[in-house]
Design brief:
Layout: E1 5-7, E2 13-15, E3 17-20, H1 31-39, E4 44-46, H2 54-64, E5 72-77, H3 86-97, E6 102-107, H4 117-129, E7 133-139, H5 143-150, E8 159-163, H6 166-169, H7 173-181, E9 185-189, H8 193-196, H9 203-218, H10 224-234, E10 238-241, H11 246-253, H12 263-273, H13 282-286
Parallel strand pairs: 3-4, 3-10, 4-5, 5-6, 6-7, 7-8, 8-9, 9-10
Antiparallel strand pairs: 1-2
Helix pairs in contact: 1-2, 2-3, 3-4, 5-7, 9-10, 9-12
The structure holds NADP nicotinamide-adenine-dinucleotide phosphate.
Residues 20-24, 46, 108, 139-140, 161, 189-193, 196, 225, 240-245, 248, 281, 284, 293 line the site of NADP nicotinamide-adenine-dinucleotide phosphate (NAP).
Length: 293
């Protein structure tokens, strides 16, 4: 079954779910995991210069045998070395990834470029205008960071990739309003955190009730993770996830076949999420000291 797509504000399209090579694969050889993910149906691969494994992501893509045109590849600008620009850094990434272009190039962390965010965004536009990437966007940008680059942008960011799940949904509202105003697609990493990193919160019983209802409606198993992924899909959010296990990769992709949540169930998830504010990737979003993400 083809992975469904989201349309970006630059008229390109992206598969709504991506396989990430950070977190569990951060700094590790991602070759095997990437090949397995592609062979089992993932077409969107999410990498980053900072993950220190773009060469193995490239090797995994090559070994999959999948034509380039059927894949969607994302990488992210890390800290700039002296003399480098976003464009020259992307040229180095393309060599490691063994491709001529990426589909999406994100500024990984606003806080890596404090005081020169506008110049960085102009450099991102230069990379796109040179044809090295189809789309450009950002990651871990607050509404203030977005406002800063929007002052100079001739191309608005297509995507902002953030820690998104129900326990941060309320706090994200100022950023999400700006996304709506500029048609910036919200992308979620750490989306399963309430279930895999922070169990015991107010969301647990709500997700379990919805899971039970959906499994009954479907007539076959539905996992708690699929409930959250379905919630994201229905909200038009691009999910970036990962797994070391084939069965989980298949489960993630099977979310397409899970029946839809009702508007009341979506409201229940957001109401339960609003009872607890909890970030699991604080180092990522609020300081320039980010490790293992
Ligand atoms: N832009 C950024 O700053 C940033 C930051 C963080 C992450 N990311 C990107 O997002 C990707 C995904 O991040 P994430 O790991 O936070 O995604 P996630 O979707 O929140 O979590 C995926 C992890 O959850 C585990 N998992 C899933 N279902 C489970 C279950 N039922 N029981 C126990 N464990 C379960 C998986 O482990 P198994 O191997 O056991 O399946 C996997 O390691 C990263 O690889 C990276 O590409 C970006």
């Amino acid at each position: 079954m083809p992975v469904s797509q989201l349309t970006l504000n630059d008229e390109t399209r992206t598969p709504w779910i991506a396989f990430g090579t950070g977190t569990a694969l951060y700094g590790k050889d991602a070759h095997q995991a990437v090949t397995v993910a592609i062979r089992n149906g993932f077409t969107h691969l999410d990498g980053a210069q900072q993950y220190n494994n773009e060469d193995s992501l490239g090797a995994g893509i090559a070994a999959s045998g999948k034509p380039r045109s059927e894949l969607y590849i994302t990488t992210k600008l890390g800290e700039l070395k002296p003399g480098d620009t976003p464009k020259s850094a992307l040229e180095e990434s393309l060599g490691k990834l063994r491709v001529d272009y990426v589909d999406l190039y994100l500024v990984h962390h606003a806080l890596s470029h404090v005081g020169r965010l506008k110049d960085i965004w102009i450099g991102m536009e230069e990379a796109r205008n040179a044809g090295l990437t189809k789309s450009i966007g950002v990651s871990n940008f607050t509404s203030d960071h977005l406002s800063e680059i929007l002052e100079v942008a001739t191309i608005p960011p297509a995507i902002n990739q953030l820690e998104v799940h129900p326990y941060v949904w309320k706090a994200l509202q100022p950023t999400l309003s700006l996304h709506q105003k500029y048609s910036i697609v919200t992308s979620s990493y750490g989306g399963l955190s309430p279930l895999v990193r922070g169990r015991g919160g107010p969301l647990d019983p709500v997700v379990e009730n919805i899971r039970t209802r959906l499994a009954r409606a479907r007539g076959s198993a539905v996992s708690e993770g699929q409930v959250l992924h379905k919630y994201f899909q229905q909200k038009g959010i691009l999910v970036v996830t990962t797994s070391t296990k084939v069965e989980r990769i298949l489960e993630y992709l099977d979310t397409e076949n899970v029946p839809e949540l009702t508007p009341d169930e979506i409201e229940d998830i957001e109401a339960a999420g609003a009872k607890l504010h909890k970030r699991f990737f604080v180092n990522c979003s609020f300081t320039s000291r980010y490790i293992h993400i």
